[in-house]
Design goal:
Length: about 350
Amino acid sequence: MSSARLIIPLVAFLYLTQAPLVSALYPTELIYQFPNGTWVENLAVRPDGSILTTIVTSPELYLIQPSSANPNPKLVHHFDGSTSLLGITETAPNAYQVVVANRTTDPIQVTPGSSSLWRVSFSAAYGHKATVSLTARLPTAGFPNGLVTLNETRVLLADSTRGVIWAINTDTGASEVAITDPLLAPTKELSTGVNGIKIHGGTLYFTNSAQNLLGQIQIDPETGVPQGPGSVIAHVLPPSKGYDDFALNSRGDAAFLSNSASESIEYVNLKTRRQAFIAGSINSTEIAQPTAAAFGRGRANGRLFVTTSGGLYFPVKGDEIVGGQLVAVNTGKSHRFGWL
């Protein structure tokens, strides 16, 4: 593996829902680039600022320290008998749940009965040595994808092909469908429906790749059961074809979305509903098919960390593929955008 560190300031057009605006896109920093053919799917930021990354193209969990002068990934665990890692969420300090499955890239699908959820626990605040144990088998899951923590004993899991959200008890391993809604469903044209999910207060936010939208549902904070129907916040900005996973800022008033086919990060103000591209650029490998995003912690809380597939599904310029990336977008500490 080889790493690179590159600061890329870029000035270009930002596309707003009401009118285009000329402004500086936020600078990005390439923290690490994996070998070609590596799809980095998701991430979780640890309390010390290091980042756990899941890999779709191999069943491996890596740890990367972005502040290091040599941020080479350290292997945390290889999951024998599986092909892919998908969603990840922190359930307690230095304790995580990770989705594991047998997944193919072309076509994108998961082998029925191959999905499971695993606990990864670190005994120390620093380092990559962890204890790994099975949380639950998920034999009836379709395509397990985004994962979010609801409370101390319960996580929610997006099922992209079934178009539902599962609730899983991390103590007992029991699972049940908690949320069904038309806005979670896939379409006839694309089988990937609900994708990324995040929670702030009593609201579950979600992306749907097939329906090209960011939506929300009010939920019970203990069970995850919906308290009403879902509603649409925004549709993907053109020329993209669908959102992947995303991050919320700490105030819960803005979403930062992986606009995969546009090789860009899209900002959506959850109050005003205005939206814009804030980083990356179509036909550029700067952020080559972003897959997920998460804000840093501590001194790095103004940095939005983004994982990418390197263009394995949406090749840059139609035919260019690079290694999956971990990229930092330097948004500043406020994450506020006065022009929105």
